[in-house]
């Protein structure tokens, strides 16, 4: 057995079902991955392949790790942005880029993954000893899977791939481990939450990875406290629940801002509290409790008054027990809190309803979001977006009701991310409607990978909000992208009448249900107003 075959065996043993990437990498070229029963999927460019692996990792709650492989040199250069995005969004992937032959690996100006990927990965190694395949891959999968999920990189020089092992190869897959919070800290924080007059729970992506959805809901209902999420954590708490405030982002619901102004105790769980234009704005004044798996996030950007380090499920479960032991029944707050949420929400929606139902042409993009919510059942849908306006239009108004039904992101705002995320989501959930929204900049960067959807029989729906510009810059963009969708092997339709948006979505969904990926190009206005309520 050579190194290439041994790596393929480790992928199989680690539960990898899909290997995404771009040739020339021996895992693809020799068929080694396919011989192990792993489906290989080649994209038009490396970055989209990383994005697909990213989606697999993020939507698997730690059960699967996304896997990616690519060519040495330009392949690793093209992949860098995708790995950096996965690092910023804490996505568990293992990347196996080829490197130059050992004799040339350190010769300038050859690109070295070992050197260059260290700042965008949780672990980064170069495999040079054939008999170290097992331990090297085990370290990579353990790093990606345990603690805070992030990419792990194993660069393999081209000639090493074809080197035989000197002994029989056996591989034991890695385990997933959880760490719990300090019990004394749990009781102290339970007291603080119970003494608060206006507590707000803020849930991040760590709730998804821990599968702590039930515990989060139980704590909220026991405290009778409202719940907001980060954009990455969106769908961790059902947004049709009467205690939901929605997701914090650059654009967010009015009720969330209302309660952030009023809160006296903010409890963040499974979140980093990273200061970013696409995250929660923590107001001055309230007591801040920060619970996260990664201790380096504590006091990183936001100073906390109390903290707990541990897995979100174990932490929330412990808090539920501690709070429940003291409450012993209703706190008689629920109706008042729900009424306040609903009043703030209705006032906000009244302000935005003219845009959501607008008959103007070009079509107001908020009308597109409204029609999506009318046509689609949220529980049957996984939806994501690209950077900029598609994110900002969608996030406040789309209500996610099922865990992991919304792939939110935003820290590094890489254009073209959403298409690969939707493709990866559809592979994992073929029974769901998997949808991505793109703008003009994003479709220009990764839009040709719509052909990957057609070639690989991955029937997603891509909605292109075409306003002929990118990020409000006065630089005209043009093109008939519906025709491009048809030319690439899918269904394409151009929509210019606002009354046709809903019917066009229905026609596109029918196409995806028959196995054909669909691309809707909707001609929209240059909308600039966002739902970003002032916290002052």
TrEMBL record:
Q: Which keywords fit this entry according to its UniProt record? A: Thiamine pyrophosphate
**Stated name of the protein:** Thiamine pyrophosphate-requiring protein
Domain (Thiamine pyrophosphate enzyme central): give its ranges: 186-319
Q: Which cofactor does it need?
A: thiamine diphosphate
Gene3D superfamilies hit by this protein: 3.40.50.970, TPP-binding domain
Q: What GO molecular-function term can you cite, just one?
A: thiamine pyrophosphate binding
Stretches assigned to the Thiamine pyrophosphate enzyme TPP-binding domain = 386-522
| Coiled-coil region(s) | none
Q: Name one GO cellular component term.
A: acetolactate synthase complex
Protein family = Belongs to the TPP enzyme family.
Domain Thiamine pyrophosphate enzyme N-terminal TPP-binding, first and last residues per copy: 1-106
GO BP terms: namely:
isoleucine biosynthetic process; L-valine biosynthetic process; sulfur compound biosynthetic process
């Amino acid at each position: 057995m050579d190194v290439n075959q041994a790596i393929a065996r480790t992928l199989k043993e680690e539960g990898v079902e899909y290997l995404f990437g771009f040739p020339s990498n021996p895992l693809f070229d020799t068929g080694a991955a396919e011989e192990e029963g792993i489906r290989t999927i080649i994209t038009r460019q490396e970055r989209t392949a990383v994005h697909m692996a990213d989606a697999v990792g993020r939507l698997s709650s730690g059960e699967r790790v996304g896997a990616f492989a690519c060519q040495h040199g330009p392949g690793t250069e093209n992949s860098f942005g995708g790995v950096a995005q996965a690092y910023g969004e804490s996505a568990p992937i293992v990347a196996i880029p080829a490197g130059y032959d050992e004799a040339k690996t350190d010769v300038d100006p050859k690109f070295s993954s070992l050197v260059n990927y260290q700042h965008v990965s949780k672990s980064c190694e170069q495999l040079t000893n054939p008999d170290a395949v097992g331990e090297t891959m085990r370290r990579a999968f353990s790093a990606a899977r345990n603690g805070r999920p992030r990419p792990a990189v194993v660069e393999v020089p081209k000639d090493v791939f074809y080197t035989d092992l000197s002994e029989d190869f056996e591989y034991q897959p890695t385990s997933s481990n959880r760490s719990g919070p300090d019990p004394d800290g749990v009781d102290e924080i339970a007291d603080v939450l119970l003494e608060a007059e206006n507590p707000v729970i803020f849930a991040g992506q760590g709730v998804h990875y821990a599968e702590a959805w039930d515990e989060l809901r139980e704590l909220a209902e026991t405290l009778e406290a409202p719940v907001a999420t980060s954009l990455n954590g969106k769908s961790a708490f059902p947004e049709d629940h009467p205690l939901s405030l929605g997701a914090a982002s650059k654009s967010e619901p009015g009720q969330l801002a209302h309660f952030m102004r009023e809160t006296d105790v903010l409890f963040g769980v499974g979140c980093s509290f990273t200061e970013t234009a696409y995250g929660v704005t923590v107001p001055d004044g309230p007591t801040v409790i920060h619970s996260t798996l990664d201790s380096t996030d504590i006091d990183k950007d936001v100073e906390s008054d109390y903290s707990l380090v541990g897995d979100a499920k174990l932490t929330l479960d412990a808090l539920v027990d501690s709070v429940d032991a003291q409450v012993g029944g209703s706190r008689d707050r629920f109706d008042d809190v729900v009424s306040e949420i609903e009043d703030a929400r209705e006032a906000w929606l009244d302000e935005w309803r003219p845009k959501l139902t607008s008959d103007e042409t070009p079509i107001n993009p908020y009308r597109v979001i409204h029609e999506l919510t009318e046509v689609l059942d949220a529980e049957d849908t996984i939806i994501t977006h690209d950077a900029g306006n598609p994110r900002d239009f969608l996030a406040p108004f789309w209500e996610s009701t099922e865990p992991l039904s919304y792939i939110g992101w935003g820290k590094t705002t890489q254009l073209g991310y959403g298409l690969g995320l939707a493709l990866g989501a559809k592979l994992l959930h073929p029974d769901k409607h998997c949808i991505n929204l793109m703008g003009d900049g994003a479709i220009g960067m990764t839009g040709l990978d719509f052909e990957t959807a057609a070639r690989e029989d991955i029937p997603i729906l891509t909605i292109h909000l075409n306003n002929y510009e990118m990020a409000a810059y006065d630089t005209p963009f043009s093109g008939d992208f519906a025709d491009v969708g048809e030319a690439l092997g899918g269904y394409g339709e151009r929509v210019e009448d606002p009354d046709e948006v809903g019917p066009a979505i229905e026609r596109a969904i029918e196409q995806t249900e028959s196995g054909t990926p669909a691309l809707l190009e909707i001609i929209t206005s240059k909308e600039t107003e966002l739902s970003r309520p002032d916290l002052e």
